[in-house]
Design a protein that fits this description.
419 residues, mainly beta, 16-stranded antiparallel barrel, 5 helices, 49% strand, globular, disordered N terminus
């Protein structure tokens, strides 16, 4: 017994010593203008009932990130650069659940790729920012702190936009090249516009261009109105949270309105010309509204807060499966005195089929429903600044909008480790 205690204590000491050494080396690099990070996300996913069949899968992402500060490195104030290499491995939960939205936002086909590589200049007065390179739109557009807690993919970007275009917009797991400009007239207003290649550089396998179809460009614009807290201290160590909400700047409330447009041509899902060929549409557009509000904050403990969010988007139902999308949820954090950095959330998301998609299935006598709806409850356990563990349960109603597919109950345990 004594021997085991000595061994355990020695192991803990060595682990802490190694951690301290890594922290010291990283702090030294940061002082010189180089900020490295190694982030690993893993999820064990189990469809316990319903869907296409019960089953389990493991989903893993490894991200190597490198941020460069031009002022410290080259005495070039305002200049920054960012590089991210992404390794995706593991299975595909949707293969046995049969859902359309994706119960796990980290799931994708196995790949190793350069995910982001961009440079940015920010003006000295803080009003303007210009970015160019390979860039993830969802890192800034269509993004809320509260919804970022949840694992279902639609809470990051609604499927009316995320599943649009020929190969999707420039988001996980496939990004494209482009440019983004941000204007901040006041601390509480952000106006962003991006121009991107209309098709991600790593298009999904099997994607083909339809006859006469042009890929074109993607234009996205968003205006956000934010209410900032008096102190960032109210956020605790929320910057380490699991999910797309990681590294958000602190805000109490946010309202965002966005719109997007593709310049390419796209095939109609159901309408044909007089020769029986699918009609070709010039351009494709959509819009969205996001709301994130602090509903309650303790006067004695600013970490204790209750937030609520709403998301609504409309897409092009002529060429995309989903014509509209809606979501809402609540998150609570800081209410457990012993665990002030933990967060609990419950939310629902519903993606509604467009009329042209329904017509195309009806002509093939394929039974369908109007929407797929998911209800999610999750708890983020912040073990320490480096490790978070997140048990999660989702109930998927009409997976894949199929009327013959049983509702699915999906259990997950997600974790994130940061070095």
């Amino acid at each position: 017994m004594l021997l085991r205690s000595v061994i355990a204590s020695a192991a803990l000491f060595c682990e802490q010593a190694l951690s301290d050494e890594i922290d010291d080396q990283k702090a030294n690099l940061i002082r010189k203008g180089v900020t490295p990070a190694l982030v690993y996300d893993g999820s064990a996913v189990a469809d316990t009932s319903g869907g296409m069949r019960t089953g389990t899968a493991y989903v893993g992402n490894l991200r190597l990130q490198l941020a460069l500060d031009g002022n410290r490195l080259l005495r070039a104030p305002g200049w920054t650069a960012f590089f991210q290499v992404l390794s995706i491995h593991g299975g595909q939960p949707s293969n046995f659940i049969g859902d359309a939205q994706g119960v796990n936002s980290y799931a994708a086909k196995p790949a190793l790729r350069l995910y982001e590589a961009w440079g940015q200049y920010s003006s000295p007065n803080g009003h303007w920012s210009f970015l160019a390179g390979r860039y993830d739109l969802n890192s800034e557009f269509y993004r809320l702190a509260s919804s970022g807690l949840f694992l279902n993919s639609s809470f990051g970007m609604g499927p009316e936009f995320s599943q649009s275009g020929i190969g999707g917009p420039s988001i996980f797991p496939d990004t494209s090249f482009g440019a983004r400009v941000t204007f901040k007239p006041t601390p509480g207003i952000l106006i962003r516009t991006a121009i991107m290649d209309g098709v991600p550089a790593n298009r999904a396998e099997g994607q083909t261009r339809f006859p006469g179809q042009k890929e074109g460009l993607l234009f996205v614009s968003e205006i956000a109105f934010l209410t900032r807290p008096g102190s960032d201290a109210s956020q605790g160590i929320a910057k380490y949270r699991v999910g797309r909400g990681a590294n958000f700047p602190a805000y109490d409330d946010k309202i965002a309105i966005g719109a997007w447009h593709y310049t390419g041509t796209f095939r109609d899902l159901s309408l044909v010309d007089n020769k029986g060929r699918p009609l070709q549409h010039e351009g494709s557009s959509g819009a969205y509204v996001l709301i994130d509000r602090t509903l309650f904050r303790s006067s004695t403990d600013p970490k204790a807060r209750l937030s609520g969010f709403l998301q609504y988007g409309i897409g092009d139902g002529r060429i995309n499966q989903f014509g509209s999308y809606a979501a809402a949820g609540l998150t609570a954090s800081g209410f457990l005195i012993s665990r002030p950095d933990d967060t609990f959330g419950i939310a629902f998301t519903s993606a509604r089929n467009g009329s042209h998609y329904i017509d195309s299935l009806n002509t093939q006598a394929i039974p369908t429903t109007h929407a797929e709806t998911s209800i999610e409850a999750t708890y983020l356990l912040q073990v320490n600044p480096r490790l978070a563990i997140q048990p999660d349960i989702q109930y998927v109603i009409h997976p894949g909008t199929s009327s013959t597919r049983a509702n699915a109950t999906v259990l997950q345990v997600h974790f994130q480790w940061i070095l």
